[in-house]
Amino acid sequence: MNRAFLSHSSKQKQLVQQIANNLGKANCVFDEFEFESGMPLFDEIKKSIGQSDVFVLFLSDDALNSEWVKLEITEIKNLIDNGLDKQFFPILIDKSLDVSNDERIPNWIKKFLLKPISEHFLITKKIRQRLLELRLDTNPIFKAKASLFVGRQDLFDQLEAKIYSLSEMKPRSIIVSGFEGIGRRTFLKEAFLREKRIKDFYSPIYITLDTKDSIEDFILKLQDYKGGNTAEYLDQLSQVEFEEKVLEAKKLLIAVKNSNEYVFIIDSGCIVKPNKQLADWFLQIIDSEEFDNLFTLNIISRFRPSNELIRGNKGIIHFNVSNLSEKDTEKLFVKYYSFLKLDLKTDQAQEILNVLNGIPSQVHYAVERIKDFGIIETLKKKEEIVDYGETQVYYMVDNIRSKGKFAFDLLVLISNFDFISYDFVYSIVGKTEEVDNLLEDFFITGVFDLVGANKEYIKVHYPIADYLTRSKAKIDSSFKLTLKQKINSFINDEGKIKDFQDVSELLHNIKGAIIANYDLPDKYYIPSFVLKTIVELYYLENYSSVIALIDKVLENSSRIDKDLVREFKYWLCLSLARKKEPRFESEVKNIEGADYNYLFGFYFRINKQLDNAETYLKGALLKNPGFQRAKRELVNVLLLKSNFSEALSMAKSNYENQKLNAFHIQAYFISLTRKKFLSKEDKLMIEELLKNIERSSDFRAKEIASVMQGEYLYYVKNDKANSIRTLRECLDKNKSKHYPKKALNDIYKRADLIMIANELNSKYNNDDETFDY
Fold first, then answer.
1. Taking a C-beta distance cutoff of 8 angstroms, is the pair 535, 556 a contact?
2. Both 178 and 60 in a single domain?
C-alpha cells in the first residue's frame, strides 16, 4: 500500500494531524504515528522517507525556518537525484509566502506551480489522489496507454495555423469532438504538451457534464475545486437570476486562469448539444478578452458542433478526431504489444491488424485480449474484436461478474451514480485492499474515468452504465441500506449542515430526499439535480410526482437555463402522455421541431390511435432523419399495425446500432420472420438474433428470448403445435404477458383459430399491447 511522508513545522501540527487522521495510519507517515515521544532521531526520519512513496511538504514560513524540515527536504532531494522514484508534492499552506521571490525556497521546488490551500479536507483529497495515481503508474497497461501516442499530424498542423494567425480575435477555447475511445482526450493533452502549455506530469481539471446538466453543475464543480460548497453558497445560487449565474461562472473560471490551471470538460450534450448548437452560457463565459489565447476552458465533446456556428465564432477552435489511418493503427498496435513485452509472429500480428478499424481503444482491447488469453485463443475469437462496441461492454461486464459477487456489486453501485467520489464509495463499502484492487482493475480496463480537480471522482463510461441500467441490475441490499441511512441523516441534520465537501454525496442525498417526498428548502432544488430526480421518478412510473415537481421548479423559470426549461417541459409532456391527460395537448405547444412531432406520436401510440401516431412520427423523421427515439417509436407503431415489411429496414438499422438491446433484437426478429419467403441470409440473421438475445442483459431479455423461440418454431420451422405449446408456457411463466399474448394472437389468426384468439384476448384484456422500449 502506498504511503505519504508528511513534512511539516511543529506549528502546523493541528492541521497536519487532521490530515493524517483523514488519510489513516496505513496511508501516511506522521511523527505521532511513527516515532517515539521526544525529538525523533534523523535516521528514523531517513528510514521513513525511504519507505514512503510520496513526500508531502507543507510549505509555510514556519516550515522554511524549521531545521528538521530543511533536513527532510535535503534528504528527499538526494533520493530524487539518485534516481529513486519518489513523488515530491509541495502544498502551500501559507498565503503570506511570496513563492517566486522567497530565497529560502530552492529553485527546484519553485518550478512546481503552487497556490495556497488551507482546508484539511481538500489537502486530504489531493494527497489521496496522488497516492492513487502512483499506484496506477506502476501498472504496465495504464503506463502504456498514458505514454503511447501516434498520428493526428494533420490536426496538429491545423492547430498551429489557427493559433498563430493574424486574426484580430485570438482563440479562447478548443472543442474536440468524436466518439468515446477515438482518442479525444489524448489528442487535446498532446496538443497542450506540444504547445508547451503544460508539463508531462500535469493533469487538468476534468469536469463531466451531460444533457441533463447545466450552468449550476459547472459552477458547483468549479466551486468544489476551490474547496467545497457551503449551504450559504447553495442558498445564494438558488436565488439569483440566470445572467448572474453566468457572471459567477466567469468569475470562477478567471480564478482558475489566475492559478495557471486548465479545465477540460468531458461533455455528453450539455455544452455541444445533440442538435450541434452550443450552450448560450458557454458562449457568454468565453466571450471575454481575458481568455484570449489562453485556452482555460476546453471541451471534449461527444457531439460535433455546427460548422457554421464555429466559422462565425473566431474564439473557438474545433477538431473532429476520426479513426487512425492504417499506418498509424499498425504503429499503435506494434508499440502497445511491444510495451507489454508480447511476442507475436508477423503473420499472427497481421491477422489481428486485418480486423482493426482505426479506433485506438479497439487496438488496446485487442492487445489486452492477447495478453490475457494468448494469441491462439484471440485468433479463434476474432469476431469479438470485429464486434468491438456493445459486445465489448458485454464481455467487460461478464469478466467482472466472473470475479465474484462483490466485484459485480461494486460495479453496479458506482454505475448508479452520474459520478461518485472515492471517499463516498469507501463510506458505503469500506476501504479495503480488495476494494482498492477492484477499483484499480476497473479503471485500467476502461470501466470508468477519473474526473474532478484532483481526479477524485469516478465517472463510469456511458455504455457500461446504460448496459447495467437496461439490465435492471440492483444495488446490493447492504449498500442500499447504507445509502438510505445517509439520506435519512441528511434529512435529519439538514438545518445544521454548513459545508458540502462531496458534490456526489450531496446530489445523491438531494435526489433521495425528493424521491422520499421530503419537503426540502428551496436552495436544494438545483434545476439539473431536480431534472435527474425527475428522470428517475419517470422510470419508476411515478408520473404524478414528476408533474408536480416540474410545476414547482418552473415557478422560477427565469432563473433556469432555457435549454433546461425545455428539458423540463419535454419530461412534463412525456408524463402527461403516460397518464393520458388532456393537458398534454396544451403543454406540447411549448415544444418545437422534431420533438413536437415525436411527443404527439408517442401520445397517440399510448392512446392506441396508431394511424395518427404513425403520421406524427414520420413527420419527426422528416424534420430530423437521424432521430433515434422517433425511429424506435415508429417501429413500435408499425409492428402494432402488423406492417412488418415497412418496419423491417428501420428495425434492422436500430439493431445494427445496438446489437445487444433486447427490444431492437425482438423488433428486427418479428419484422424478419414475417417475410413471406426467408432467404438463406435471412435465416442466418435469425440465428444471430436468437444468439444475441441470449447474451443480452436487458431486464426482459429472458422472457423475450422464450417468446422468440416459440415464434421461431412457427415462422421458420413450420411447427405450429410446438410453437403454440411453447408460447402457452411463456404465458403461464412470464411476468409480462403482452409479448406471448401478441405472438399467440398472431398465430391463432393466421391459423384461422379466431375463437381461441378471442378467448385469449378476453382473458388478458387488461394487458397493454405495446412493444415498449
1. no
2. no
The angle subtended at Cα 119 by Cα 115 and Cα 122, nearest 5°, is: 80
Q: Which helix (DSSP H) or strand (DSSP E) does residue 550 occupy?
A: helix 543-553
Q: What single-letter amino acid sits at 410?
A: L
| Residue 275 located in a structural domain | yes
CA 750 to chain centroid: 47
Taking each helix axis from N to C terminus, what angle separates 562-578 and 543-553, rounded to the nearest 10 degrees? 150
d(CA 173, CA 170): 10
CA-based max dimension of the chain: 98
pTM here?
0.79
Per DSSP, 589 falls in state G
Nearest to 386 by CA among 177, 659, 695, 146: 659
- Which residues span the domain enclosing 183? 169-320
Choosing from 518, 547, 571, the residue where a domain stops is: 518
Tens digits of per-residue pLDDT, 393-446?
Answer: 877 888 899 999 999 999 999 999 989 999 899 999 998 889 988 998 898 888
Q: Which residues of 414-452 are buried (b: 16+ CB within 10 A; e: fewer)?
A: bbbbbbbbbbbbeebbeeeeebbebbbebbbbbbbbbbb
State whether 173 and 308 are in the same domain: yes
**Looking at residues 565-577, what average pLDDT do you find?**
95
Q: How far is CA 592 from the centre of its chain?
A: 28
| Same domain assignment for residues 580 and 598 | no
Residue 91 pairs with which residues in a beta bridge? Answer: 58
Strand (E) or helix (H) holding 318: strand 316-320
